[in-house]
Design goal:
The protein has 641 residues and is mostly beta strands.
Length: 641
Protein backbone atom coordinates (compact mmCIF):
# COMPACT_ATOMS: atom_id res chain seq x y z
CA UNK A 1 0.00 0.00 0.00
CA UNK A 2 2.82 2.39 0.88
CA UNK A 3 4.65 1.65 -2.34
CA UNK A 4 1.44 2.27 -4.29
CA UNK A 5 1.11 5.61 -2.53
CA UNK A 6 4.64 6.53 -3.56
CA UNK A 7 4.10 5.54 -7.17
CA UNK A 8 0.84 7.51 -7.31
CA UNK A 9 2.56 10.54 -5.84
CA UNK A 10 5.42 10.24 -8.31
CA UNK A 11 2.99 10.18 -11.22
CA UNK A 12 1.00 13.03 -9.74
CA UNK A 13 4.04 15.27 -9.23
CA UNK A 14 5.50 16.00 -12.65
CA UNK A 15 9.27 16.28 -12.16
CA UNK A 16 9.83 19.43 -14.16
CA UNK A 17 6.72 21.47 -13.41
CA UNK A 18 6.26 21.17 -9.64
CA UNK A 19 7.45 23.95 -7.41
CA UNK A 20 10.09 22.63 -4.99
CA UNK A 21 10.48 23.52 -1.36
CA UNK A 22 13.80 24.99 -0.28
CA UNK A 23 15.91 22.03 0.84
CA UNK A 24 17.98 22.62 3.94
CA UNK A 25 21.70 22.17 3.33
CA UNK A 26 23.66 20.77 6.28
CA UNK A 27 27.27 19.85 6.92
CA UNK A 28 27.35 16.07 7.19
CA UNK A 29 29.98 13.51 6.19
CA UNK A 30 32.42 16.42 5.66
CA UNK A 31 30.39 18.02 2.85
CA UNK A 32 27.46 20.44 2.64
CA UNK A 33 24.61 18.22 1.51
CA UNK A 34 20.83 18.14 1.26
CA UNK A 35 18.81 15.04 2.05
CA UNK A 36 17.90 14.73 -1.63
CA UNK A 37 21.48 14.75 -2.92
CA UNK A 38 23.26 12.88 -0.11
CA UNK A 39 24.80 9.49 -0.98
CA UNK A 40 24.05 8.32 2.58
CA UNK A 41 20.80 7.93 4.47
CA UNK A 42 20.33 10.51 7.18
CA UNK A 43 17.50 12.10 9.16
CA UNK A 44 17.41 15.84 9.78
CA UNK A 45 15.54 17.21 12.78
CA UNK A 46 14.98 20.93 13.22
CA UNK A 47 14.20 22.56 16.56
CA UNK A 48 10.51 22.28 15.68
CA UNK A 49 10.87 18.51 15.13
CA UNK A 50 12.89 18.03 18.33
CA UNK A 51 10.19 19.75 20.41
CA UNK A 52 7.17 18.43 18.52
CA UNK A 53 5.97 16.45 21.55
CA UNK A 54 8.46 16.07 24.39
CA UNK A 55 10.56 18.87 25.91
CA UNK A 56 12.55 16.81 28.41
CA UNK A 57 13.63 13.81 26.36
CA UNK A 58 14.74 12.91 22.83
CA UNK A 59 12.58 9.76 22.89
CA UNK A 60 9.52 10.98 20.97
CA UNK A 61 11.52 12.83 18.30
CA UNK A 62 14.13 10.12 17.61
CA UNK A 63 11.59 7.28 17.70
CA UNK A 64 9.70 9.11 14.96
CA UNK A 65 12.61 8.33 12.58
CA UNK A 66 12.70 5.15 10.52
CA UNK A 67 15.29 2.59 11.60
CA UNK A 68 15.77 4.18 15.03
CA UNK A 69 14.79 2.95 18.48
CA UNK A 70 15.57 4.97 21.62
CA UNK A 71 14.58 3.14 24.79
CA UNK A 72 14.11 4.87 28.14
CA UNK A 73 13.94 2.17 30.82
CA UNK A 74 13.51 4.74 33.59
CA UNK A 75 14.07 8.53 33.72
CA UNK A 76 17.65 9.21 32.56
CA UNK A 77 18.43 5.59 31.60
CA UNK A 78 18.71 5.46 27.78
CA UNK A 79 19.56 2.70 25.36
CA UNK A 80 19.66 3.18 21.61
CA UNK A 81 19.82 1.22 18.38
CA UNK A 82 20.09 2.44 14.79
CA UNK A 83 19.46 -0.29 12.21
CA UNK A 84 20.24 -2.93 14.73
CA UNK A 85 19.80 -4.30 18.18
CA UNK A 86 20.63 -2.81 21.55
CA UNK A 87 22.10 -6.20 22.47
CA UNK A 88 25.49 -4.58 23.08
CA UNK A 89 24.08 -2.09 25.56
CA UNK A 90 22.48 -3.38 28.78
CA UNK A 91 22.40 0.35 29.50
CA UNK A 92 23.85 3.41 27.78
CA UNK A 93 24.53 4.11 24.13
CA UNK A 94 27.20 2.08 22.30
CA UNK A 95 28.24 1.54 18.69
CA UNK A 96 26.79 4.94 17.73
CA UNK A 97 29.16 7.89 17.39
CA UNK A 98 27.87 11.14 18.86
CA UNK A 99 29.23 14.63 18.13
CA UNK A 100 28.18 17.90 19.73
CA UNK A 101 29.04 21.03 17.74
CA UNK A 102 31.47 18.81 15.74
CA UNK A 103 33.26 17.76 18.96
CA UNK A 104 33.46 14.00 19.66
CA UNK A 105 31.08 13.24 22.54
CA UNK A 106 31.56 9.47 22.42
CA UNK A 107 34.59 8.47 24.47
CA UNK A 108 37.51 6.27 23.44
CA UNK A 109 35.79 3.27 25.05
CA UNK A 110 32.83 3.60 22.63
CA UNK A 111 30.39 4.80 25.31
CA UNK A 112 28.14 7.86 24.97
CA UNK A 113 26.38 9.35 27.98
CA UNK A 114 23.36 10.64 26.05
CA UNK A 115 21.57 11.45 29.31
CA UNK A 116 23.79 14.56 29.65
CA UNK A 117 22.29 16.25 26.58
CA UNK A 118 18.85 17.90 26.51
CA UNK A 119 16.45 18.87 23.69
CA UNK A 120 16.52 22.58 24.62
CA UNK A 121 20.30 22.61 24.18
CA UNK A 122 19.96 21.74 20.48
CA UNK A 123 18.85 23.59 17.37
CA UNK A 124 19.42 20.69 14.98
CA UNK A 125 20.06 16.93 14.98
CA UNK A 126 21.52 15.01 12.02
CA UNK A 127 21.32 11.23 12.32
CA UNK A 128 23.20 9.02 9.85
CA UNK A 129 22.26 5.35 9.48
CA UNK A 130 24.59 2.40 8.98
CA UNK A 131 28.35 2.38 8.39
CA UNK A 132 29.84 5.44 6.71
CA UNK A 133 33.23 4.07 5.69
CA UNK A 134 34.96 5.37 8.82
CA UNK A 135 34.34 9.09 8.29
CA UNK A 136 33.01 9.21 11.84
CA UNK A 137 35.39 6.65 13.28
CA UNK A 138 34.78 2.97 13.89
CA UNK A 139 31.15 1.89 14.17
CA UNK A 140 28.39 -0.01 12.43
CA UNK A 141 25.28 1.62 13.89
CA UNK A 142 25.54 5.16 12.62
CA UNK A 143 26.20 8.59 14.10
CA UNK A 144 24.33 11.53 15.63
CA UNK A 145 25.44 15.13 15.13
CA UNK A 146 23.96 17.53 17.69
CA UNK A 147 24.23 21.24 16.85
CA UNK A 148 23.45 24.08 19.22
CA UNK A 149 21.85 27.38 18.15
CA UNK A 150 23.70 30.45 16.92
CA UNK A 151 20.73 32.76 17.03
CA UNK A 152 20.08 36.35 18.10
CA UNK A 153 20.65 37.75 21.58
CA UNK A 154 18.00 36.68 24.07
CA UNK A 155 17.25 35.69 27.64
CA UNK A 156 14.89 32.74 27.97
CA UNK A 157 13.42 31.08 31.04
CA UNK A 158 11.27 27.94 31.19
CA UNK A 159 9.21 26.33 33.95
CA UNK A 160 8.04 22.76 33.26
CA UNK A 161 6.04 20.38 35.43
CA UNK A 162 4.29 17.05 34.92
CA UNK A 163 1.61 14.99 36.60
CA UNK A 164 4.17 12.42 37.78
CA UNK A 165 5.57 15.06 40.13
CA UNK A 166 8.46 16.18 37.95
CA UNK A 167 9.76 19.74 37.87
CA UNK A 168 12.27 21.37 35.53
CA UNK A 169 13.68 24.86 35.31
CA UNK A 170 15.78 26.20 32.42
CA UNK A 171 17.75 29.39 31.84
CA UNK A 172 19.12 30.07 28.36
CA UNK A 173 21.09 33.29 27.85
CA UNK A 174 22.57 34.21 24.45
CA UNK A 175 24.58 37.40 24.14
CA UNK A 176 27.38 38.58 21.78
CA UNK A 177 28.34 35.09 20.58
CA UNK A 178 28.11 33.56 24.06
CA UNK A 179 25.47 31.13 25.18
CA UNK A 180 24.99 29.98 28.78
CA UNK A 181 22.49 27.19 29.37
CA UNK A 182 21.53 25.95 32.84
CA UNK A 183 18.85 23.46 33.82
CA UNK A 184 17.66 21.72 36.95
CA UNK A 185 15.37 18.72 36.64
CA UNK A 186 13.89 16.55 39.37
CA UNK A 187 11.66 13.62 38.43
CA UNK A 188 10.09 11.05 40.83
CA UNK A 189 9.47 8.46 38.07
CA UNK A 190 6.45 6.23 37.48
CA UNK A 191 7.99 3.12 39.09
CA UNK A 192 9.15 2.67 42.64
CA UNK A 193 12.82 3.55 43.03
CA UNK A 194 13.10 5.32 39.67
CA UNK A 195 13.62 8.96 40.68
CA UNK A 196 16.10 11.21 38.88
CA UNK A 197 17.88 14.44 39.72
CA UNK A 198 19.81 16.26 37.02
CA UNK A 199 21.75 19.51 36.79
CA UNK A 200 23.45 20.71 33.60
CA UNK A 201 25.47 23.85 32.95
CA UNK A 202 26.95 24.59 29.51
CA UNK A 203 28.71 27.43 27.77
CA UNK A 204 29.05 27.86 24.01
CA UNK A 205 31.01 30.61 22.32
CA UNK A 206 31.09 31.37 18.60
CA UNK A 207 33.11 34.04 16.82
CA UNK A 208 34.53 34.76 13.38
CA UNK A 209 38.05 35.62 12.31
CA UNK A 210 39.48 36.75 8.99
CA UNK A 211 37.13 36.51 6.02
CA UNK A 212 35.71 32.99 6.46
CA UNK A 213 37.17 31.67 9.71
CA UNK A 214 35.09 30.56 12.69
CA UNK A 215 35.98 29.54 16.25
CA UNK A 216 33.59 27.67 18.50
CA UNK A 217 34.14 26.63 22.12
CA UNK A 218 31.74 24.20 23.82
CA UNK A 219 32.02 23.40 27.54
CA UNK A 220 29.70 21.72 30.01
CA UNK A 221 29.33 20.26 33.48
CA UNK A 222 26.65 17.72 34.39
CA UNK A 223 25.67 16.09 37.68
CA UNK A 224 23.10 13.34 37.17
CA UNK A 225 21.79 10.68 39.51
CA UNK A 226 19.00 8.26 38.67
CA UNK A 227 17.73 5.26 40.58
CA UNK A 228 17.66 1.92 38.76
CA UNK A 229 14.58 -0.13 39.72
CA UNK A 230 15.64 -3.34 37.93
CA UNK A 231 13.73 -5.76 35.73
CA UNK A 232 10.64 -7.76 36.73
CA UNK A 233 9.42 -11.20 35.85
CA UNK A 234 6.17 -11.46 33.89
CA UNK A 235 4.28 -12.51 37.02
CA UNK A 236 5.63 -9.52 38.96
CA UNK A 237 4.88 -7.22 36.01
CA UNK A 238 1.26 -8.39 35.86
CA UNK A 239 0.83 -8.12 39.63
CA UNK A 240 2.30 -4.61 39.94
CA UNK A 241 4.16 -3.28 36.91
CA UNK A 242 5.45 -0.21 38.78
CA UNK A 243 7.19 -2.03 41.62
CA UNK A 244 10.99 -2.13 41.82
CA UNK A 245 12.84 -5.41 41.70
CA UNK A 246 12.35 -7.33 44.93
CA UNK A 247 14.81 -9.43 46.90
CA UNK A 248 15.46 -12.87 45.40
CA UNK A 249 17.72 -15.60 46.74
CA UNK A 250 21.01 -14.16 48.00
CA UNK A 251 20.34 -10.72 46.47
CA UNK A 252 18.47 -7.87 48.09
CA UNK A 253 16.05 -5.69 46.16
CA UNK A 254 16.90 -2.55 44.19
CA UNK A 255 15.61 -0.16 46.87
CA UNK A 256 17.32 -2.05 49.71
CA UNK A 257 20.64 -1.90 47.86
CA UNK A 258 20.10 1.79 46.95
CA UNK A 259 20.72 0.93 43.29
CA UNK A 260 21.66 4.23 41.63
CA UNK A 261 23.71 5.47 38.69
CA UNK A 262 25.48 8.73 39.58
CA UNK A 263 27.43 10.50 36.84
CA UNK A 264 29.53 13.64 37.08
CA UNK A 265 30.86 14.75 33.71
CA UNK A 266 32.99 17.70 32.67
CA UNK A 267 34.04 18.47 29.11
CA UNK A 268 35.36 21.23 26.90
CA UNK A 269 36.25 21.41 23.23
CA UNK A 270 37.58 23.88 20.68
CA UNK A 271 36.59 23.84 17.01
CA UNK A 272 38.32 26.00 14.37
CA UNK A 273 37.26 26.16 10.71
CA UNK A 274 38.44 28.28 7.82
CA UNK A 275 38.41 28.45 4.03
CA UNK A 276 40.66 30.31 1.65
CA UNK A 277 41.38 30.71 -2.04
CA UNK A 278 37.87 29.54 -2.87
CA UNK A 279 39.15 25.95 -3.00
CA UNK A 280 40.79 25.02 0.32
CA UNK A 281 39.42 24.70 3.82
CA UNK A 282 40.03 22.94 7.10
CA UNK A 283 38.35 21.94 10.37
CA UNK A 284 40.28 21.22 13.56
CA UNK A 285 38.75 20.01 16.83
CA UNK A 286 40.43 19.24 20.16
CA UNK A 287 38.55 18.29 23.31
CA UNK A 288 38.80 16.73 26.75
CA UNK A 289 36.11 14.93 28.73
CA UNK A 290 36.24 13.54 32.28
CA UNK A 291 33.54 11.19 33.56
CA UNK A 292 33.22 9.99 37.14
CA UNK A 293 30.67 7.26 37.86
CA UNK A 294 29.46 5.91 41.18
CA UNK A 295 27.13 2.95 40.73
CA UNK A 296 25.79 0.96 43.69
CA UNK A 297 23.82 -1.94 42.16
CA UNK A 298 22.06 -5.04 43.40
CA UNK A 299 25.29 -7.06 43.08
CA UNK A 300 28.11 -4.64 43.93
CA UNK A 301 29.31 -1.04 44.20
CA UNK A 302 31.44 0.26 41.31
CA UNK A 303 33.43 3.50 41.08
CA UNK A 304 34.88 4.55 37.72
CA UNK A 305 37.10 7.42 36.62
CA UNK A 306 37.32 7.99 32.85
CA UNK A 307 39.33 10.92 31.42
CA UNK A 308 39.38 11.13 27.60
CA UNK A 309 41.14 13.31 25.03
CA UNK A 310 39.96 13.64 21.41
CA UNK A 311 41.38 15.29 18.31
CA UNK A 312 39.89 15.51 14.83
CA UNK A 313 41.09 17.37 11.76
CA UNK A 314 39.95 17.54 8.13
CA UNK A 315 41.38 19.32 5.07
CA UNK A 316 38.93 20.11 2.27
CA UNK A 317 39.66 20.80 -1.39
CA UNK A 318 37.05 21.64 -4.00
CA UNK A 319 37.44 22.54 -7.65
CA UNK A 320 35.07 22.23 -10.59
CA UNK A 321 33.43 18.81 -10.35
CA UNK A 322 35.60 17.34 -7.57
CA UNK A 323 35.60 17.65 -3.79
CA UNK A 324 38.31 15.97 -1.70
CA UNK A 325 38.44 15.50 2.08
CA UNK A 326 41.43 14.17 4.03
CA UNK A 327 41.21 13.77 7.77
CA UNK A 328 41.98 11.97 10.98
CA UNK A 329 40.35 11.30 14.34
CA UNK A 330 42.24 10.16 17.44
CA UNK A 331 41.05 9.39 20.95
CA UNK A 332 42.83 8.22 24.05
CA UNK A 333 41.14 7.33 27.32
CA UNK A 334 42.10 6.03 30.73
CA UNK A 335 39.45 3.77 32.26
CA UNK A 336 39.98 3.07 35.95
CA UNK A 337 37.48 0.97 37.87
CA UNK A 338 37.18 -0.24 41.46
CA UNK A 339 34.48 -2.73 42.43
CA UNK A 340 33.39 -3.16 46.05
CA UNK A 341 30.74 -5.14 47.79
CA UNK A 342 27.46 -3.28 48.30
CA UNK A 343 26.01 -3.27 51.82
CA UNK A 344 22.67 -1.51 51.39
CA UNK A 345 24.14 1.41 49.49
CA UNK A 346 27.41 1.55 51.41
CA UNK A 347 30.77 0.52 49.96
CA UNK A 348 32.02 -2.72 51.49
CA UNK A 349 35.18 -4.77 50.88
CA UNK A 350 37.20 -4.07 47.73
CA UNK A 351 36.68 -6.97 45.34
CA UNK A 352 38.94 -6.01 42.44
CA UNK A 353 40.58 -3.10 40.62
CA UNK A 354 40.77 -2.90 36.83
CA UNK A 355 42.62 -0.06 35.11
CA UNK A 356 43.35 0.17 31.42
CA UNK A 357 44.16 2.59 28.62
CA UNK A 358 42.40 2.63 25.25
CA UNK A 359 43.60 4.34 22.09
CA UNK A 360 41.53 4.51 18.92
CA UNK A 361 42.01 6.43 15.74
CA UNK A 362 41.60 6.52 12.01
CA UNK A 363 42.71 8.39 8.93
CA UNK A 364 40.28 8.80 6.05
CA UNK A 365 39.93 10.20 2.57
CA UNK A 366 36.78 10.97 0.55
CA UNK A 367 36.32 11.95 -3.07
CA UNK A 368 33.03 13.34 -4.41
CA UNK A 369 32.98 13.61 -8.20
CA UNK A 370 30.28 14.82 -10.60
CA UNK A 371 30.60 12.44 -13.54
CA UNK A 372 28.11 14.40 -15.69
CA UNK A 373 24.85 16.29 -15.28
CA UNK A 374 23.02 13.14 -14.19
CA UNK A 375 25.60 11.08 -12.27
CA UNK A 376 27.56 11.77 -9.07
CA UNK A 377 29.92 9.42 -7.27
CA UNK A 378 31.42 9.21 -3.78
CA UNK A 379 34.41 7.08 -2.82
CA UNK A 380 35.97 6.96 0.63
CA UNK A 381 38.50 4.85 2.51
CA UNK A 382 39.36 4.76 6.19
CA UNK A 383 42.27 3.05 7.96
CA UNK A 384 41.26 2.31 11.56
CA UNK A 385 43.37 1.42 14.57
CA UNK A 386 42.32 0.30 18.05
CA UNK A 387 44.59 -0.57 20.97
CA UNK A 388 44.02 -1.81 24.49
CA UNK A 389 46.14 -4.03 26.70
CA UNK A 390 43.33 -6.61 26.74
CA UNK A 391 43.34 -7.44 23.02
CA UNK A 392 46.46 -5.64 21.77
CA UNK A 393 46.45 -3.72 18.51
CA UNK A 394 43.86 -4.03 15.72
CA UNK A 395 43.84 -2.47 12.26
CA UNK A 396 41.08 -2.45 9.68
CA UNK A 397 40.27 -0.82 6.33
CA UNK A 398 36.69 0.36 5.67
CA UNK A 399 35.89 1.49 2.10
CA UNK A 400 32.66 3.09 0.91
CA UNK A 401 31.36 3.64 -2.62
CA UNK A 402 28.14 5.33 -3.77
CA UNK A 403 26.53 6.37 -7.06
CA UNK A 404 23.79 9.00 -7.25
CA UNK A 405 21.56 9.13 -10.35
CA UNK A 406 19.60 12.33 -10.92
CA UNK A 407 16.02 11.87 -12.16
CA UNK A 408 14.95 15.36 -13.14
CA UNK A 409 15.22 18.10 -10.55
CA UNK A 410 13.26 16.40 -7.80
CA UNK A 411 14.26 12.73 -7.58
CA UNK A 412 17.38 10.66 -7.00
CA UNK A 413 18.32 6.98 -7.08
CA UNK A 414 21.32 6.02 -4.93
CA UNK A 415 23.27 2.76 -4.77
CA UNK A 416 25.83 2.33 -2.01
CA UNK A 417 28.15 -0.28 -0.54
CA UNK A 418 30.13 0.37 2.64
CA UNK A 419 32.20 -1.61 5.09
CA UNK A 420 31.57 -1.41 8.82
CA UNK A 421 33.95 -2.08 11.70
CA UNK A 422 33.22 -1.79 15.41
CA UNK A 423 35.67 -2.89 18.12
CA UNK A 424 34.35 -4.01 21.52
CA UNK A 425 33.69 -1.23 23.99
CA UNK A 426 35.40 -0.99 27.38
CA UNK A 427 32.19 -2.19 29.07
CA UNK A 428 32.19 -5.30 26.84
CA UNK A 429 35.84 -6.11 27.43
CA UNK A 430 35.43 -5.47 31.16
CA UNK A 431 31.83 -6.49 31.96
CA UNK A 432 30.12 -6.64 35.34
CA UNK A 433 31.17 -10.26 35.90
CA UNK A 434 34.63 -8.85 36.72
CA UNK A 435 36.30 -11.22 34.26
CA UNK A 436 38.23 -9.52 31.47
CA UNK A 437 37.35 -10.95 28.06
CA UNK A 438 40.52 -11.10 25.98
CA UNK A 439 38.88 -13.25 23.28
CA UNK A 440 36.20 -10.79 22.21
CA UNK A 441 36.53 -9.83 18.55
CA UNK A 442 35.48 -6.76 16.61
CA UNK A 443 32.33 -6.72 14.50
CA UNK A 444 32.98 -6.43 10.76
CA UNK A 445 30.69 -6.48 7.78
CA UNK A 446 29.41 -5.05 4.50
CA UNK A 447 26.28 -2.99 3.98
CA UNK A 448 24.58 -2.87 0.57
CA UNK A 449 21.88 -0.28 0.08
CA UNK A 450 19.67 1.26 -2.59
CA UNK A 451 17.60 4.41 -2.07
CA UNK A 452 14.92 6.31 -3.96
CA UNK A 453 14.22 9.89 -2.89
CA UNK A 454 11.85 12.57 -4.07
CA UNK A 455 11.20 16.12 -2.97
CA UNK A 456 8.20 18.20 -4.05
CA UNK A 457 6.11 21.00 -2.66
CA UNK A 458 3.26 18.75 -1.51
CA UNK A 459 5.01 15.44 -0.99
CA UNK A 460 8.49 14.10 -0.36
CA UNK A 461 9.83 10.66 0.47
CA UNK A 462 12.93 8.63 1.23
CA UNK A 463 12.76 4.88 0.60
CA UNK A 464 15.77 2.67 1.36
CA UNK A 465 16.35 -1.08 1.22
CA UNK A 466 19.53 -2.52 2.71
CA UNK A 467 21.29 -5.72 3.69
CA UNK A 468 24.07 -5.63 6.26
CA UNK A 469 26.02 -8.90 6.58
CA UNK A 470 27.89 -8.78 9.88
CA UNK A 471 30.56 -11.15 11.17
CA UNK A 472 31.42 -11.68 14.85
CA UNK A 473 28.28 -9.91 16.05
CA UNK A 474 28.65 -8.98 19.73
CA UNK A 475 25.72 -10.00 21.97
CA UNK A 476 25.04 -9.90 25.70
CA UNK A 477 24.74 -12.98 27.90
CA UNK A 478 23.94 -13.24 31.60
CA UNK A 479 25.76 -15.19 34.29
CA UNK A 480 23.81 -17.09 36.93
CA UNK A 481 24.09 -14.18 39.38
CA UNK A 482 22.63 -11.73 36.85
CA UNK A 483 25.89 -10.06 35.84
CA UNK A 484 26.45 -9.47 32.15
CA UNK A 485 29.17 -10.61 29.78
CA UNK A 486 29.57 -10.51 26.01
CA UNK A 487 30.34 -13.05 23.30
CA UNK A 488 30.67 -13.10 19.53
CA UNK A 489 27.57 -14.65 17.96
CA UNK A 490 29.12 -15.51 14.62
CA UNK A 491 27.29 -14.15 11.58
CA UNK A 492 24.10 -12.10 11.42
CA UNK A 493 22.20 -10.69 8.45
CA UNK A 494 20.30 -7.44 8.84
CA UNK A 495 17.77 -6.86 6.07
CA UNK A 496 15.57 -3.80 6.21
CA UNK A 497 13.26 -1.41 4.38
CA UNK A 498 12.90 2.15 5.66
CA UNK A 499 10.36 4.63 4.36
CA UNK A 500 9.96 8.23 5.47
CA UNK A 501 7.43 10.47 3.76
CA UNK A 502 5.83 13.82 4.38
CA UNK A 503 2.52 15.07 2.94
CA UNK A 504 1.36 18.68 2.98
CA UNK A 505 -2.39 18.23 3.53
CA UNK A 506 -3.08 21.96 3.59
CA UNK A 507 -1.34 25.26 4.03
CA UNK A 508 -1.14 24.70 7.79
CA UNK A 509 -1.38 20.90 8.05
CA UNK A 510 1.44 18.40 7.47
CA UNK A 511 1.65 14.64 8.05
CA UNK A 512 5.03 12.94 8.61
CA UNK A 513 5.19 9.14 8.57
CA UNK A 514 8.05 6.71 9.13
CA UNK A 515 7.88 2.96 8.46
CA UNK A 516 10.53 0.39 9.35
CA UNK A 517 10.55 -3.28 8.29
CA UNK A 518 13.35 -5.39 9.75
CA UNK A 519 14.35 -8.98 9.13
CA UNK A 520 17.39 -9.28 11.41
CA UNK A 521 18.56 -12.84 12.03
CA UNK A 522 21.37 -14.90 13.49
CA UNK A 523 22.99 -16.90 10.69
CA UNK A 524 25.72 -18.85 12.46
CA UNK A 525 25.24 -18.77 16.24
CA UNK A 526 25.90 -21.88 18.34
CA UNK A 527 26.26 -21.57 22.12
CA UNK A 528 27.26 -24.83 23.73
CA UNK A 529 24.69 -27.40 22.65
CA UNK A 530 22.17 -24.74 21.59
CA UNK A 531 21.85 -23.63 17.99
CA UNK A 532 20.26 -20.21 17.55
CA UNK A 533 20.93 -19.96 13.81
CA UNK A 534 17.90 -18.62 11.95
CA UNK A 535 16.41 -16.96 15.03
CA UNK A 536 15.46 -13.31 15.00
CA UNK A 537 18.01 -10.95 16.48
CA UNK A 538 17.17 -10.36 20.12
CA UNK A 539 15.56 -7.03 20.93
CA UNK A 540 14.59 -6.12 17.35
CA UNK A 541 11.06 -5.51 16.17
CA UNK A 542 10.03 -6.69 12.66
CA UNK A 543 7.91 -3.57 12.14
CA UNK A 544 7.78 -0.02 13.51
CA UNK A 545 5.53 2.86 12.52
CA UNK A 546 5.51 6.53 13.54
CA UNK A 547 3.07 9.27 12.53
CA UNK A 548 3.26 12.94 13.40
CA UNK A 549 0.48 15.34 12.43
CA UNK A 550 1.41 19.04 12.74
CA UNK A 551 -1.40 21.61 12.54
CA UNK A 552 -0.86 25.36 12.75
CA UNK A 553 -4.41 26.20 13.79
CA UNK A 554 -3.76 29.93 14.13
CA UNK A 555 -0.59 32.07 13.85
CA UNK A 556 -0.28 31.74 17.64
CA UNK A 557 -1.86 28.31 18.21
CA UNK A 558 -0.58 24.88 17.10
CA UNK A 559 -1.35 21.24 17.77
CA UNK A 560 0.78 18.13 17.22
CA UNK A 561 -0.46 14.55 17.43
CA UNK A 562 1.81 11.51 17.39
CA UNK A 563 1.24 7.76 17.10
CA UNK A 564 4.03 5.22 17.72
CA UNK A 565 3.58 1.52 16.99
CA UNK A 566 6.25 -1.06 17.86
CA UNK A 567 5.68 -4.66 16.87
CA UNK A 568 6.54 -7.59 19.12
CA UNK A 569 10.18 -8.47 19.80
CA UNK A 570 11.99 -11.50 21.18
CA UNK A 571 13.63 -11.04 24.56
CA UNK A 572 16.20 -13.84 24.44
CA UNK A 573 18.45 -15.44 21.86
CA UNK A 574 16.41 -18.65 21.93
CA UNK A 575 13.33 -16.66 20.81
CA UNK A 576 11.23 -18.39 23.48
CA UNK A 577 10.12 -15.17 25.23
CA UNK A 578 8.54 -12.26 23.43
CA UNK A 579 7.43 -8.74 24.28
CA UNK A 580 3.96 -7.82 22.94
CA UNK A 581 3.48 -4.97 20.49
CA UNK A 582 2.66 -1.49 21.80
CA UNK A 583 0.63 1.50 20.61
CA UNK A 584 1.36 4.89 22.12
CA UNK A 585 -0.55 8.11 21.37
CA UNK A 586 0.89 11.52 22.30
CA UNK A 587 -0.43 15.04 21.85
CA UNK A 588 0.81 18.60 22.37
CA UNK A 589 -0.97 21.95 22.09
CA UNK A 590 0.98 25.21 22.17
CA UNK A 591 0.09 28.87 22.34
CA UNK A 592 2.85 31.35 21.52
CA UNK A 593 3.23 35.10 21.63
CA UNK A 594 6.32 37.19 20.91
CA UNK A 595 7.69 37.06 24.45
CA UNK A 596 6.00 34.04 25.98
CA UNK A 597 4.61 30.60 25.19
CA UNK A 598 2.46 28.01 26.95
CA UNK A 599 2.10 24.33 26.11
CA UNK A 600 0.37 21.22 27.37
CA UNK A 601 1.45 17.70 26.47
CA UNK A 602 -0.45 14.46 27.02
CA UNK A 603 1.65 11.30 26.68
CA UNK A 604 0.42 7.73 26.37
CA UNK A 605 -3.12 9.10 26.09
CA UNK A 606 -4.80 5.66 26.01
CA UNK A 607 -2.84 4.52 29.09
CA UNK A 608 -1.14 1.62 27.27
CA UNK A 609 0.72 -0.74 29.58
CA UNK A 610 3.97 -1.34 27.70
CA UNK A 611 7.73 -1.77 28.06
CA UNK A 612 9.97 0.66 26.20
CA UNK A 613 13.29 -0.84 27.30
CA UNK A 614 13.33 -4.54 28.26
CA UNK A 615 16.35 -6.27 29.80
CA UNK A 616 17.51 -8.72 27.12
CA UNK A 617 18.63 -12.28 27.95
CA UNK A 618 17.82 -11.56 31.60
CA UNK A 619 18.45 -14.24 34.23
CA UNK A 620 15.23 -15.49 35.81
CA UNK A 621 13.32 -13.93 32.89
CA UNK A 622 13.40 -10.49 34.56
CA UNK A 623 12.82 -8.71 31.24
CA UNK A 624 10.18 -6.15 32.14
CA UNK A 625 10.65 -2.42 32.88
CA UNK A 626 7.25 -0.72 32.79
CA UNK A 627 6.94 2.61 30.99
CA UNK A 628 4.76 5.38 32.44
CA UNK A 629 1.01 5.26 31.95
CA UNK A 630 -0.95 8.33 30.92
CA UNK A 631 0.56 11.57 32.18
CA UNK A 632 0.52 15.27 31.41
CA UNK A 633 3.15 17.97 31.16
CA UNK A 634 2.74 21.75 31.13
CA UNK A 635 5.33 24.40 30.38
CA UNK A 636 5.81 28.15 30.32
CA UNK A 637 8.54 29.90 28.36
CA UNK A 638 9.37 33.60 28.73
CA UNK A 639 11.71 35.21 26.18
CA UNK A 640 13.31 38.64 26.30
CA UNK A 641 15.14 39.89 23.21
Amino acid sequence: MLLSLLVSAWLFCAPDTSKTLDEVEVHVLEQNRTRLSSPDAFSLLSSKDIHAIQSNSFSSSLNAQSGVRLEERSPGSYRMAVRGSSLRAPFGVRNIKIYWNQIPFTDAGNNSYLTILEPDMMEQIILTKGPTGGLYGAGTGGSILFNGPQGPNKIEHQEIGNSLGGYKQIWDIQQSGHRVYASFWQQPGARDWSAMKKQVLSHEYHTNFGINGTIQVTSYYADIAYQTPGGLTLAQFKANPFQARQAAGAFLGAAEQQATFHLKSLGTGLSIANTWNGNWGYNLVNSIQVNKIENPSIRNYEIRHEPNVSSRGVIHYKQNKSALDFGYEFQIGQFDSQTFGNRKGIKDTLQFTQNTNIQSGNIFAQWDYQINSKWNSTISLSANGYWTQYIGNEQNLTPRFALVRKLGNHQRIIAKIAAGYSPPSIAELRPSTGTINTNLKSEKGWNKEITWRGHYELFDWDLSAFQFDLDETIVIRRAADGSDYFVNAGKTTLQGIELTYSILLGKTLRLNNAETIQNFRFIDYISGTKNYSGNRLTGTSPFQHASLLQWQIHPHLSWNGQFLFTDMMFLNDANTERLPSSRVWNSKISYQQKHWALWLTAENILNEMYVSGPDLNAVGNRFYNASPGRYFQAGLRITLN
